[in-house]
């Protein structure tokens, strides 16, 4: 048990028998009345995000989450296979749990797999990954209707908006949280 004053981003709470991950929180002291903690929490089972306000110093149950660094091996068509690098145990993860992380996962890449009582909760990728651009249209120097960006397909099949000067075959750095272009990777 902990209080709402101890909340941190990424923490997993057990509320009404369900697991909720804290996406954002803010302590707020209005001019009149007691302090409150505003949160944005995501239901780990359904993926639904809700805003919830707690009174300060209210006890909440923290779920025990085991986070392990695992290596992504391959997708067998029905699930994603991860391997614990310490014990070499393999773990099958359903596509619903992997979610949008699949757009940035390459074989043999490391990721953090979070579990609770043997059940996989979510996959956490590094903040950025380096990917090769497999296809993009040539950028026209005078075309600025799109703010100087164009769509590009990377080696995982995901679409990323890149500047006009990026060409097919270049390696780029991509933010895994919002699919944004971060820069070229010099070889």
Structure description:
With 187 residues, the chain is mostly beta strands. The protein contains one helix and 16 strands. The strands form three sheets. A six-stranded antiparallel β-sheet has the order 1-6-2-3-4-5, with no helix packed on it. Strands 9-8-7-10-11 form a five-stranded antiparallel β-sheet. A five-stranded antiparallel β-sheet has the order 14-13-12-15-16, with no helix packed on it. A hairpin with a 2-residue loop joins strand 10 (110-116) and strand 11. The longest helix has 4 residues, at 95-98. The mean pLDDT is 89.
Summarize the structure.
The chain is an all-beta fold and 187 residues long. The protein has one helix spanning 95-98, and strands spanning 2-3, 12-15, 18-28, 36-43, 49-55, 59-62, 66-75, 80-84, 90-93, 110-116, 119-124, 128-136, 149-154, 159-163, 171-175, 181-184.
Strand content: over 45%
Q: Kindly state the number of beta strands.
A: 16
Quaternary: single chain
Quick one: overall form? flat
Write the layout of secondary structure elements.
Layout: E1 2-3, E2 12-15, E3 18-28, E4 36-43, E5 49-55, E6 59-62, E7 66-75, E8 80-84, E9 90-93, H1 95-98, E10 110-116, E11 119-124, E12 128-136, E13 149-154, E14 159-163, E15 171-175, E16 181-184
Antiparallel strand pairs: 1-6, 2-3, 2-6, 3-4, 4-5, 7-8, 7-10, 8-9, 10-11, 12-13, 12-15, 13-14, 15-16
Tags for this entry?
16 strands, mainly beta, 1 helix, six-stranded antiparallel beta sheet, 52% strand
């Amino acid at each position: 048990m902990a209080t709402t004053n101890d909340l941190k981003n990424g923490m997993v709470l057990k509320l009404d028998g369900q697991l909720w991950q804290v996406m954002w929180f803010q302590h707020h002291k209005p001019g009149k009345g007691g302090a409150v903690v505003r949160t944005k929490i995501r239901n780990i089972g359904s993926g639904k995000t809700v805003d919830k306000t707690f009174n300060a110093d209210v006890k909440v149950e923290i779920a025990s989450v085991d986070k392990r660094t695992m290596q992504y091996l391959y997708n067998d068509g029905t699930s994603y296979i991860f391997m614990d690098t310490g014990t070499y145990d393999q773990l099958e993860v359903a596509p619903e749990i992997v979610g949008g992380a699949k757009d940035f996962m390459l074989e043999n890449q490391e990721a953090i797999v979070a579990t609770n009582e043997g059940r996989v909760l979510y996959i956490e990728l590094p903040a950025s990954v380096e990917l090769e651009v497999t296809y993009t249209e040539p950028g026209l120097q005078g075309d600025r209707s799109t703010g100087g960006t164009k769509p590009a397909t990377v080696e995982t099949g995901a679409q990323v908006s890149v500047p006009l000067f990026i060409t097919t075959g270049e390696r780029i750095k991509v933010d895994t949280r919002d699919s944004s272009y971060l820069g070229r990777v010099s070889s």
